[in-house]
Each structure stands twice: as structure tokens, then as C-alpha cells.
């Protein structure tokens, strides 16, 4: 999860988030090189009086500064499209969880089980135990198995919400009357926190998301105890 004064992204927990981090670094390096080149040229223009009379009429220069940006855009677009298709691809999910947004809490339904559903409310600050996080803890965590592809079906029953867990690279809008889906795969166990990322009313900041990723055998025992 995030920590105070953090400047970068949270540590990646899913393969998709790792790809997003790599793409971010790739694009940031291109932006850094372009910015450095532009700054260098501006500084030269301001500090030297040397001029070249035929520069404004050079066909070679115009050809270069037309083709080079196109090549740079291709270098950004190709990996971006690859990640978009990876995020949209769902291959034979092992588990499906339906998430419904409400004002102002989340409800979850494990559709592969006959009667496994619950609501998830934020724990008030006055009820927090030592070590628990303010505005992030919930009374019912979403327990999921790690290292398995999981399909999240996300919708809303009232207004627009957004189900987001940054360390997993997830952010999907919850829209009334529409069912959106996202893929979730965790490479390691742990607690992963998120929040509603769409302004949905006065208590928008009080509907956190907590995912508890555990090994499969612990998930099976948990699901048996919940039914």
C-alpha cells in the first residue's frame, strides 16, 4: 500500500501492474530525452549568436523533425496497445466475484457459490483496533485465492462509483445498468487496499476496498465457513 510522501507507484502485485510499471518507465524515459533536447536547444538559442542562414530552408531538417516524432509515437503506441489487450483478456477464470457499488459501501457476491455474499462497510475511526488503518479498514474483507485468474464483475445500484486497487493495477467504473469486468491475479499473499475513485456523493471517501489474497487451501476453508 501507499506510504507517506511516496513519489512513485505502489509495489506491483499482479503481472498486469508490473507491465504498467515497465511501460511507465519506458514512456517517462522518452519524455525525459525529449525535454532534455528541447531545453538544450533553447539554451543554445539564448546563449549563442551563431546562426546558419539556410537552416530555415533546409529540407533535410524538416524531414527529420517530421519522421522522428512519428517513430517516437509508434514506440509508445505499440507497447501501450499490447498492455490494453492483456488487460482486456480473460482466459478461463477460476473464480467470479460480482461487486456492486452503493452509497456508500460495497457488496460482494461469489457467483460460483450457492449462498456466499456480504456487504463491506468502512470501520469507523472510533472502532479501530491498534495497527488498523483509518479510512481503509472494512468489516468484511474480500478473501480471494492467490495465483489464480479471477474475474471481477463490477456494477452499481445508484450512482457512478469506481472500484480501484492500485497495487493490482485495477480501476474499473461501476455504472448503474452496466456490467463491467476486470481480471485479477495476485502473485503473492497479503492485504491490498483501494478506494472508490469516482466522486459519488458526500461520503465518497468512506467506502474503502480491502482484498485479502491467501493460498487456495485457506480460501477453501474460509468459503466453507462462510456458507
Could you explain how this protein is built, in words?
The mean pLDDT is about 90. About 20% of the residues are buried. This protein has helices at about 15-45, 60-90, 215-225, and strands at about 95-100, 105-110, 115-120, 140-145, 150-155, 160-165, 170-175, 180-185, 190-195, 210-215. The strands form two sheets. It has a five-stranded mixed beta sheet, with no helix packed on it. The protein is an alpha+beta fold and about 230 residues long. The radius of gyration is 24 Å and the shape is elongated. It starts with 14 loop residues before the first helix and ends with a helix. The chain folds into two domains: about 15-90, Helix Hairpins (Orthogonal Bundle); about 95-225, Immunoglobulin-like.
Characteristic key phrases:
Immunoglobulin-like, 10 strands, 3 helices, alpha+beta, 227 residues
Summary, kept brief:
The chain has 227 residues and is α+β, with helices and mostly antiparallel strands. It contains 3 helices and 10 strands. The protein folds into 2 domains: 74 residues, Orthogonal Bundle (Helix Hairpins), CATH 1.10.287; 132 residues, Cupredoxins -  blue copper proteins (Immunoglobulin-like, Sandwich).
